[in-house]
Specification:
The complex is a heterotrimer of chains A (99), B (467) and C (400).
Chain A (H helix, E strand, L loop, with lengths): L6 E2 L7 E6 L2 E6 L4 H6 L6 E2 L6 E2 L12 E5 L2 E4 L10 E2 L9
Parallel strand pairs in A: 2-8
Antiparallel strand pairs in A: 2-3, 4-5, 6-7
Chain B lengths: L15 E4 L3 H12 L4 E4 L21 H5 L3 H17 L1 E3 L3 E6 L2 E5 L4 E5 L2 E4 L3 E3 L12 E3 H11 L1 E2 L3 E6 L3 H11 L3 E7 L3 H6 L1 H4 L3 H16 L4 E3 L2 E6 L6 E5 L5 E5 L2 E5 L2 E3 L2 H5 L4 E4 L4 E4 L6 E3 L2 E3 L8 H19 L9 H21 L6 H4 L5 E3 L4 E2 H11 L5 H8 L12 H10 L20 E2 L9
Parallel strand pairs in B: 1-2, 1-7, 2-3, 7-22, 9-17, 11-12, 11-17, 12-13
Antiparallel strand pairs in B: 4-5, 5-6, 8-18, 14-15, 15-16, 19-20, 21-22, 23-24
Helix pairs in contact in B: 1-3, 1-10, 4-5, 5-8, 10-11, 13-14
Chain C lengths: L2 E9 L3 H12 L4 E5 L7 H4 L3 E2 L9 H11 L2 H5 L10 E5 L2 H16 L4 E5 H7 L9 E5 L3 E2 L2 H14 L3 E4 L1 E9 L2 E8 L4 E11 L5 H7 L7 E3 L3 E6 L7 E4 L5 E4 L4 E5 L17 H14 L7 E6 L3 E3 L6 E4 L6 E5 L5 H18 L25 H4 L13
Parallel strand pairs in C: 1-2, 1-11, 2-8, 4-14, 11-20
Antiparallel strand pairs in C: 3-7, 4-6, 5-6, 9-10, 10-11, 12-18, 13-16, 13-17, 14-15, 15-16, 19-20
The chains are: A mainly beta (99), B alpha/beta (467), C alpha+beta (400).
Chain lengths: 99, 467, 400
């Protein structure tokens, strides 16, 4: 069982979506934020560019900018204010194909 | 300083733009919509409410009644009103207002940006948590107090199963109560302010007895549920490897206390989002009680040059004050532009606002910002989390610079404040470090200079623009 | 009122003023720098940061080469980092006219002994695969470098101070008199106190405000103010080592060692030199982003996090004013660097220091004589219409 940070206490009654986070399959539902999907199934959203230590968001309201992730090849999004989409390929680090 | 709006002749009004659909913005929009003037309401979020009335994301089955308790009535009323208002005005959710320039506010989505010219601009941009760094504050599992509440309401998630709520703010108690109601475990509430200081501020807080009593009710509920509450503590470390695992704190005249947890909700009050006001040319002044820089406005929110400020983005006041100030700002616009006035009791609202602001001053005294911590934090502690700049690096920059210390120079030399958040979360700590340094500095004048875009602007929006 | 006396007083604490103070101290002259705000707080601090040789004007290239010699050992001399990095500079051509300019520039550079490599489209895209097919050719100069402009003036101020220079911030020079072979300056500090400084030699390094000072001595520098449009992105995974620069100046960018991409591009902006206020208009931000993404498509994934500009002094022929006053012995001008004073700075500083101590300089500064503005015939006019925003006020472009 993957460890996680966040703990969900209310469910979405919306369509089930399939995502991947760093290639790992993750179940989600429409309306969930990328950050919630990542941190209910994992322990960080990114690694800091200058230091490499794990970061897991902070302000959760789009102000601290500490939760920027890759939400597809060549596409970035702020995890706390970006909603998941079906088939989204989320990455905690830069996509080497894109570079 | 009183800001007077003296218009030699009443200018023509073609468009009012409001930025922010929280309690202040919606109250302003509501009043203006009654006066039948054209209003464009911009909001970065997808639904109205701001932080104060944050609503669940679409499709989330969250029992807000249970969560908010006595606050539910106000919440439901707000959202009913907001829905009606948003249907009446030109409401644009999901748009980032990233600059104000030349009489227009620039708003962007991922794919395009647009300039919205205005005759009057009401800025209701709200606030964020104010943070004093703690060793380990960048660990996964450590979140802001406001963030913990936002996540619960918006996404139906607790930040952890066993949470420490800490800092200095009346919101500590509200957040802890909401967590308990949501089925979470609150390992402790660690309040850095002393009980005595809270008692001393009682006279100021008595001017808003409803707000005070609801705060006390939260305290009682927490005690009844056996939640450990400590006052006057120093937060020493958020401990953990890869994620937070415990909070180490010290009480006066007692041994350090280690509280095991898997998440932390942390904050020391709020700081207003003043970036658009500053870009719009508003003067800012330093509020020594709140220890924030705030736009310089009159009581109705006039900042001059067609700019009006309402809500926490003008001065921290709470949700009720936000709504009142929103309506006052809107009324001011109507009067300044010679439009049909809406029948509201201005005098009563102003009196209420004054009372609520006095209450806030009491709160600022009771739940004081621990400014002196900045001097005591070890060199290795991170001050700027965007750029990973430590207190030591900032102190070294101060020593190296010599001469008159000034935050923008220290930013240039140390990179503190140069990251994506543009100083929102390191700014308060940086100001204290610079103010405490040996060199002369002007706490009143000294603050990080704002530049557009006020939040990261997607380069993708320029793809369809001809170069 | 008592006065303090120095061999040399420098008005203006930008990089030129601080570098000159340092050079003078090394030559044993007592020196004071008088700066109204903070050292490096105006033009010096807002520069793109490029130490560019390629594409420099023919008349400036000899001085630029001498300056680069100094830049290449500057950190060793200062004993601290200014983030000097040498990864070269690439000029890009997007059309045939640009291509012709690249070839012309290459000829000029080679004539001065510089090593320039011209690359065709295929070679360019192979070498720098992040570039789009809009690029038709490029020219690469290996000796060009970059530096962090925000660090430069403060570093030189400290170095000058270590050598005994006096750096006075927060001092506004209200008036200057000249008589009996000495200058007498009245300076006011922030708390209202007035100081008198006397000196034998005076250097005008007052940036966009140099014209006012020159006018007090009956000479004209037809200076106008403008600012560069600068942007910076969030950190991006490293992809571009050299500076990339479309040859007409419409867009240029460089990636710092931390990954942020700094972006600039013409036209330069109108600024308020009186109120000392300047901002990059939002439309300009969007235009520059559009230009960037046209040549580096993958940047569309990323975000701009800040814009800035500043107040710089330009003259119509886009060359500095460097050398002795035409009217007043003992007065020297080191200004009007027209947006490229960073690279030339160290050589300009040595030139003035040598003039003061030796009466002559080995630096090639003849083209920068102030008397060129009095000479008959029109000064060289460049593509000023392209390079400056319509509302930039200049006495000679014929606007405002």
């Amino acid at each position: 069982m993957a460890s996680s940070i966040l703990y969900r206490i209310a469910a979405f009654d919306t369509p089930l979506l399939s995502l991947t986070v760093d290639g790992r399959p993750v179940q989600s539902r429409q309306g969930e934020s990328v950050l919630a999907a990542m941190l209910t199934s994992g322990e960080h959203v990114r690694r800091h560019e200058n230091g490499g230590e794990p970061r897991g968001g902070f302000c959760l309201m789009g102000a601290c900018q500490d939760c920027w992730v890759w939400v597809g090849p060549g596409e970035r999004g702020r995890a706390c204010t970006t909603l998941v989409a079906d088939g989204m390929q989320i990455s905690t680090s830069p996509d080497p194909r894109f570079d | 300083m009183e800001c007077r709006s003296r218009l030699l002749q009443t200018p023509a009004l073609t468009r009012i733009v409001i930025v922010g659909a929280g309690p202040a913005g919606i109250a302003a929009a509501e009043l203006l919509s009654r006066a039948s003037v054209e209003v464009t309401l911009i909001d970065e979020a997808l639904h109205p409410g701001g932080q104060y009335h944050r609503a669940p994301a679409s499709g989330l089955n969250l029992d807000m009644g249970r969560l908010l308790g006595a606050g539910y009535v106000e919440y439901k009323t707000f959202h009913k009103d907001a829905a009606a208002v948003c249907a009446k005005v030109d409401y644009r959710p999901g748009m980032l207002a990233w600059s104000v320039h030349g009489g227009a506010v620039h708003v962007a989505s991922r794919s395009a940006t647009q300039a919205l010219g205005f005759d009057a601009l009401i800025l209701a941009t709200g606030a964020t948590d104010r943070i004093m760094p703690v060793p380990g504050w960048t660990l996964p599992g450590v979140f802001t107090l406001g963030g913990a509440q936002a996540l619960l309401k918006d996404q139906g998630c607790l930040i952890g199963r066993r949470v420490v709520v800490c800092g200095s703010s009346p919101l500590l108690y509200l957040a802890a109560v909401q967590y308990l109601r949501a089925g979470g475990e609150v390992a402790a509430v660690i309040d850095t302010t002393r009980f005595l200081d809270k008692l001393r501020a009682l006279p100021d807080m008595l001017v808003a007895p409803n707000v005070l009593s609801s705060g006390l009710r939260h305290l009682v509920e927490l005690k009844r549920r056996g939640v450990k509450i400590v006052h006057g503590a120093t937060i020493d470390v958020f401990e953990g490897e890869g994620r937070v695992a415990a909070v180490l704190c010290t009480l006066p005249n007692a041994a350090p206390l280690r509280i095991a947890c898997d998440a932390v909700a942390y904050g020391h009050g709020l700081r207003p989002e003043t970036q658009l006001a500053e870009l719009a040319g508003c003067a800012l002044r330093y509020d020594a009680v709140q220890r924030n820089h705030v736009p310089d406005t009159d009581l109705d929110g006039r900042a001059g040059q067609g700019i009006y400020i309402a809500g926490d983005g003008g001065t921290i006041g709470g949700g009720q004050a936000a709504a009142v100030s929103g309506s006052l700002a809107a009324a001011a616009v109507l009067r300044d532009f010679g439009l049909s006035t809406v029948d509201i009791d201005l005098a009563a609202r102003r009196r209420l606002l004054q009372r609520l602001r006095r209450f806030q001053r009491g709160l600022a005294t009771a739940f004081r910002w621990p400014s002196e911590r900045a001097m005591l934090l070890d060199d290795a502690v991170i001050l700027c989390r965007c750029e990973n700049v430590t207190f030591g690096e900032v102190r070294a920059a101060l020593d190296q610079q010599g001469g008159t210390a000034e935050v923008n120079r220290i930013k240039a030399a140390s990179r503190c404040g140069m990251g994506r958040c543009q100083g929102r979360f390191c700014g308060a700590g940086l100001a204290e470090v610079v103010a405490a340094s040996a060199q002369q500095s002007d706490r009143e004048r000294d603050r990080l200079r704002v530049q557009a875009p006020i939040k990261p602007l997607p380069i993708s929006l320029a793809m369809d623009v001809s170069p | 009122m008592s006065s303090i006396d120095f061999d040399v007083a420098i008005i203006g604490g930008g990089l030129v003023g601080c570098m000159t103070a340092y050079a003078l101290r090394k030559r044993g002259r007592s020196v004071v720098v008088l700066e109204r705000g903070h050292v490096g707080g105006e033009s010096s601090g807002v520069s793109f940061g490029s130490l560019r040789l390629q594409g420099q004007h023919d008349a400036e290239l000899p001085l630029a080469l001498r300056a680069q010699d100094i830049w290449e050992s500057i950190e060793a001399e200062l004993g601290e980092s200014v983030e000097f990095v040498r990864h070269g500079h690439v000029h890009l051509a997007l059309n045939a006219e640009h291509h012709a300019r690249l070839e012309n520039n290459a000829r000029q550079c080679r004539a001065q002994g510089m090593d320039i490599t011209l690359l065709d489209r295929d070679m360019t895209l192979r070498r720098w695969p992040f570039l789009s097919g809009e690029v038709v050719a490029s020219s690469w100069s290996s000796r060009d470098a970059v530096v962090n402009p925000r660090l430069v003036a403060p570093a030189f101020a400290r170095a000058a101070q270590r050598h005994g220079a006096i750096i006075r911030e927060g001092v506004n020079v209200l008036g200057v008199e000249h008589g009996g072979g000495r200058f007498s300056l009245h300076g006011r500090t922030g708390d209202g106190a007035v100081e008198i400084i006397t000196c034998e030699a005076l250097i005008n390094a007052a940036g966009a405000w140099s014209g006012t000072l020159a006018a007090q001595f009956g000479e004209t520098i037809p200076l106008f103010a403008a600012g560069p449009a600068e942007l910076v992105t969030e950190p991006v995974p490293p992809f571009a080592a050299p500076v990339m620069h479309v040859v007409d100046g419409s867009i240029l960018f460089r990636q710092t060692s931390r990954g942020n991409v700094i972006i600039a591009g013409h036209p330069r902006l109108s600024v308020d030199a009186e109120a000392r206020r300047s901002r990059v208009p939002p439309d300009k931000i969007v235009t520059n982003l559009a230009r960037l993404v046209a040549i580096v498509p993958k940047m569309r994934a990323h975000h701009v996090i800040r814009s800035w500009t500043g107040i710089e002094g330009y003259v119509e022929d886009m060359m500095p004013v460097l050398g002795p006053s035409a009217t007043t012995p003992g007065l020297y001008h080191a200004c009007a660097f027209s947006g490229h004073g960073l690279q030339l700075g160290p050589a300009a500083a040595v030139a003035i220091a040598e003039l003061i101590t030796d009466g002559a300089t080995t630096m090639p500064i003849a083209p920068f004589d102030i008397r060129r503005f009095f000479a008959s015939g029109q000064p060289r006019t460049l593509h000023l219409a392209e390079e400056f925003q319509d509302d930039v006020r200049s006495p000679h472009i014929g606007r405002g």
